[in-house]
Q: What sequence folds into this?
């Protein structure tokens, strides 16, 4: 979704956010915002920070140059925003970070930059734990077949403890419902912090199974795998879907003719796959992991003898001609002919990985981290035998290794009668340098704007024409057709071409790119967002009557349930209140951008008030009222255009958290249901005249990913470029969201959406 701006809001006061804002400022590639609460709530649920207090607590953000936009959340009012604006005016906005080499950035509850990883042996290598794979562990298979997910979680935890950076999850078995098993395992796993702190690799032979698991991952996982085996069109379709979800992908070296076995075939298929993914699908090359097929050596068959050296050679060639990709493989396949003697198998793996990682640039492997051996731990004679076998140096390499394997097996039998000797202590191991390619040496360059979405409209800064009546995709038309608006709404907001002279240097709707203008705004000064809507409605209610009757108004006079407390419906029943609040923030607070009164305007959240059928109208009216006031205030000073930010809240159901204390796999909403709900909200917001979309108050990143997926669908269907902002909520001083992610992991999970601003 490539949000233009990302940031933090709600839950905490500004001073409590400081360490977490600093962390985000050090990692986000787009603009950054904060709209904090006016301190922490008091015993009565109110907020005590005065405007001066709140401005003083925000000052640290301005002093360090961390922000491009600032506003307020719960407890803030126009005087608070005014004080913050006046405080910010003496400081420069945050400079966009330099654009450097793209890196694969995964996340579980915590983030993981794959290109910077060293494993427990000091190698520049990502360990993918193999023991939660039915094919890799008999014990795990038995547990899954019996439905013992709790004990299966112990295997997952042990993998992480033993050094797995990523957890491979594979439940492929003909006697198991893979779709249900994958979903249940992932849903339980994400509730176990010691498991879900690492990213997942969702592994299945059927694409629908990995997709089912993907929709329950709040972080950024790897999907294993796709390939050209299914034909180029389906390959592109699958890759496009994974790109929309922000997942990294393993691409197997298969095509329509079969599996690549030789060096030349591995290189040819991977290069063809790369060209399709990068040039046609616009898939981020740093999120591609090629698996050129680790095949078994030491079988006694002559045609298998070069499989090891072919893989090593192909790895380097692929890395050279396919910039930024990763190379992976199932390492246990290499030594399958020597199963039963782990010392021999891990010795073969050690030699293979030593050369493939340090000399050819292999990055990733599915391994049992606990069993891995460092090259220095190998006995000299075994090391020589392994090198002969891996590199096919001698005709007798396989026979020599089989002889040594028999000896080791005899030693195992002998030890059963006594005690096995302890393994030599490894001591502190020096981290070995990662092999550098030419593209690794390109110096970072100054950023001129946040990372752009891959659409033509975004890449070329095509202005939004604001003629929504031309947007006729069937899903959009269907939502409008069931709208509850009493009269047909106006949905076009382009400004007349002659409203200002052609040389007028300030933003004109339909003529100028909002992305370009906001980039200039955010890089020239700290922009001002609005403050809390709920607090202002409460303040209004203290001075005026605002009870059930007023909430209902004429429109909802005969509604079948109580509606007091549904602030979003006031956009319909009491529009003058909402417009008055918008106007206060713009005129008194000096806000450049205001969020719409649509925080809960989804079918899911509105079910509490039996208002699912008026969601489009709620969003349309919330945005339309903001559009009218913004245009009214802008008309008084056209040199300072005001923007409508369509506010997309979190819903009251979450994808990552179980509502049941007895069963952590239970959910009361699916990813697809969230996407559908958010999509309807987005259509209403855009038809109401929004300039920007903001996914905000994110306490569960999976919900946010669903919202961003819906945004991506809307932008794909319409061909528009609409800036996207993303705002997370850290619930306490742990610096984590309610669903457990750190700020960095939260950003890594949503950065595929290319936010323009994050906070």
A:
């Amino acid at each position: 979704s490539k949000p233009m701006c990302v940031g933090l809001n709600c839950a905490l006061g500004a001073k409590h956010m400081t360490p977490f804002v600093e962390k985000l400022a050090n990692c986000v590639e787009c603009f950054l915002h904060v709209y904090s609460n006016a301190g922490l709530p008091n015993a009565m649920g109110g907020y005590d920070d005065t405007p001066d207090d709140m401005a003083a607590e925000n000052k640290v953000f301005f002093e360090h140059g961390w922000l491009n936009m600032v506003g307020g959340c719960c407890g803030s009012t126009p005087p608070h925003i005014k004080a913050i604006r006046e405080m910010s005016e003496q400081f420069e906005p945050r400079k966009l970070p330099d654009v450097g080499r793209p890196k694969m950035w995964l996340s579980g509850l915590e983030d993981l930059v794959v290109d910077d990883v060293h494993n427990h042996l000091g190698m520049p290598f990502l360990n993918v734990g193999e023991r939660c794979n039915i094919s890799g562990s008999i014990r795990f298979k038995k547990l899954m077949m019996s439905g013992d997910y709790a004990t299966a979680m112990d295997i997952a935890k042990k993998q992480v403890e033993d050094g797995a950076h990523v957890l491979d999850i594979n439940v492929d078995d003909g006697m198991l419902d893979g779709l249900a098993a994958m979903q249940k395992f992932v849903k339980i796993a994400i509730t176990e912090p010691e498991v879900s702190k690492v990213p997942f690799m969702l592994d299945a032979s059927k694409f629908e199974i990995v997709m089912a698991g993907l929709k329950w991952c709040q972080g950024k996982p790897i999907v294993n795998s796709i390939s050209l085996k299914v034909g180029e069109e389906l390959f592109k379709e699958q890759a496009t879907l994974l790109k929309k979800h922000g997942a990294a992908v393993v691409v197997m070296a298969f095509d329509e003719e079969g599996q690549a076995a030789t060096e030349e075939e591995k290189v040819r298929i991977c290069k063809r796959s790369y060209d399709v993914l990068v040039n046609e699908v616009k898939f981020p090359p740093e999120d591609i992991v090629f698996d050129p097929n680790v095949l078994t050596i030491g079988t006694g068959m002559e045609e298998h003898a070069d499989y090891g050296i072919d893989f090593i050679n192909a790895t380097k060639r692929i890395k050279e001609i396919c910039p930024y990709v990763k190379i992976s493989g199932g390492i246990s396949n290499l030594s399958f002919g020597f199963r039963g003697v782990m010392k021999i198998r891990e010795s073969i793996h050690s030699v293979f990985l030593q050369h493939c990682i340090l000399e050819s640039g292999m990055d990733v492997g599915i391994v049992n981290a606990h069993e891995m051996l460092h090259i220095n731990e190998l006995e000299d004679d075994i090391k020589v035998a392994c090198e002969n076998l891996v590199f096919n140096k001698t005709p007798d390499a396989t026979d020599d290794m089989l002889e040594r394997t028999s000896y080791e097996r005899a030693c195992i039998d002998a030890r059963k009668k006594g005690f096995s000797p302890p393994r030599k202590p490894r001591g502190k191991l020096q981290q070995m340098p990662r092999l550098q390619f030419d593209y690794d040496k390109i110096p970072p360059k100054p950023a001129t704007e946040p990372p752009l979405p891959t659409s033509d409209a975004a890449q070329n800064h095509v202005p939004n024409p604001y003629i929504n009546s031309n947007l006729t995709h069937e899903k959009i038309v269907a939502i409008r057709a069931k709208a509850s608006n009493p009269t047909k709404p106006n949905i076009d907001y382009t400004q007349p071409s002659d409203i200002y002279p052609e040389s007028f240097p300030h933003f004109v709707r339909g003529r100028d790119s909002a992305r370009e203008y906001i980039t200039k705004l955010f890089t020239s000064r700290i922009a001002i967002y609005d403050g809390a809507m709920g607090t202002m409605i409460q303040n209004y209610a203290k001075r005026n009557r605002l009870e059930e009757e007023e909430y209902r108004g004429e429109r909802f006079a005969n509604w079948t349930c109580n509606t007091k407390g549904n602030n979003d419906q006031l956009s319909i029943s009491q529009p003058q209140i909402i417009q008055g609040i918008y106007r206060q923030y713009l005129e008194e607070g000096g806000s450049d951008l205001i969020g719409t009164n649509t925080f809960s305007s989804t079918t899911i959240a509105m079910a509490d008030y039996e208002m699912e059928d008026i969601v489009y109208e709620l969003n349309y009216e919330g945005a339309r009222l903001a559009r009218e006031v913004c245009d009214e205030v802008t008309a008084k000073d056209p040199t300072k255009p005001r923007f409508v930010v369509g506010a997309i809240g979190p819903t009251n159901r979450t994808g990552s958290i179980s509502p049941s204390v007895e069963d952590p796999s239970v959910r009361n909403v699916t990813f697809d249901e969230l996407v559908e709900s958010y999509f309807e909200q987005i259509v209403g917001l855009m038809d109401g005249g929004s300039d920007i979309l903001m996914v905000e108050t994110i306490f569960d990143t999976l919900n946010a990913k669903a919202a961003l997926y819906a945004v991506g669908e809307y932008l794909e269907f319409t061909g528009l470029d609409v800036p996207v902002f993303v705002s997370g909520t850290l619930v306490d001083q742990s610096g984590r969201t309610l669903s457990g992610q750190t700020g960095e992991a939260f950003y890594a999970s949503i950065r595929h959406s290319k936010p323009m601003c994050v906070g």
User: Anything to note?
Assistant: The longest strand covers residues 4-13. The radius of gyration is 28 Å. The first helix runs from residue 14 to 25.
